[in-house]
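If your schedule permits, I should be very grateful for your opinion on a structural question. I have a record of one protein: its chain in single-letter code and its fold written as discrete structure tokens. Would you kindly read the sequence against the tokens and tell me how you understand this chain to fold? Thank you for your consideration; the sequence and its tokens are set out here.


***
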Amino acid sequence: MQKLLTYPLEHEGFRVLQARDGEEALQRFAGEHVDLVVLDLMLPKLDGLEVCRRLRATSLVPIIMLTARDDELDKVVGLELGADDYITKPFSIREFRSRVRALLRRAAAGAHDGGRDRIVVEELVLDLAKRTTQLADRAVELTYVEFELLRTLAERPGRVFSRQALLQSLWGDYAYREPRTIDVHVRHLREKLGDMELIQTVRGVGYRLRG
């Protein structure tokens, strides 16, 4: 699996670091600059969910999780631990490369945003350059996808976004993706923000930011 996924990425010019188990993955991550993590759920020593949990304790690096189990519970647990995207085996190399490019492109766009430096909606402040979030002068730690999701909503407060539109905004398309993953990320945002009404549900349609 590593060889199968490494070759097309290196062919496109990416530098790929490989690890054979969860413990080695954490060691390599600690010793290298990493832009994206592709994490198999079924790993020796430490499984992918535990590695994801430990990475998220110290880093907001984008994470794609791979699993052979097409189980909704696995997907939800992976997202709740901080994974940004999720691919179920078997998958095509084309799909895999598309997911990798989409996350890296979105991360690069966020890091080099040439537009506004900040978005302010009521007491919510998003610093786009520093990628920090404050609500009522309280710092809120968000993952990469949580920040991008909140940013999309905050750029047009009051506008209703469908789940498909939010998937499109986050990853450039919504092919192969389960729209319910947006619900998981929204739930995380509400819990972290501590304001359950800031992000409003429009039944049967999607979500909007109060404003």
